[in-house]
Amino acid sequence: MPVTDITTDVENRTLTITAEFAAPVARVWAMYADARQLEQVWGPPEYPATFVDHELRAGTRTTYYMTSPEGEKFAGYWDITEVVEPQRFAFLDGFAGDDLVPNPALPVSSNVYAFEEVEGATRAVFTGTYETAEGLQTVLDMGVVEGSTSAINQIDAFLA
């Protein structure tokens, strides 16, 4: 399984997931840069994602939704703040309504996805920092660890 470590630090309001993929950094980066590829692995397998807008470039907004087995849609967005290809990208990650407009009632996290080549494979460190400890706890209660783990653990099979 790609996920090798999960660290929740309530004091610093962070959730960090470390994973290792059996593919070079350039291949992993290409997956995150391409909406159609990203749809195959963003979100748990039973909640397939549809990306409406996605351009991995600072200053852009990515919008997407995941569809539950019952057909319910859960929308989100990324406001991309930094892109250093292929080492890392940073973005604000939030929840949105059905109209893809950000929902200010739910937590927003500041994220850095960093990629490093390790013996022909890729070590990825996904770090999300929340504005408040309560915001972090909200997403933990929503199942972010379980959902992220199942999503990340399907990446190797997709890249193979």
UniProtKB/TrEMBL annotation:
Alphabetized InterPro entries for the sequence: ASHA1/2-like_C, START-like_dom_sf
Pfam families for the chain: AHSA1
All residue ranges annotated as the Activator of Hsp90 ATPase homologue 1/2-like C-terminal domain in the record: 23-159
Family, per entry: Belongs to the AHA1 family.
Name of the featured protein: SRPBCC domain-containing protein
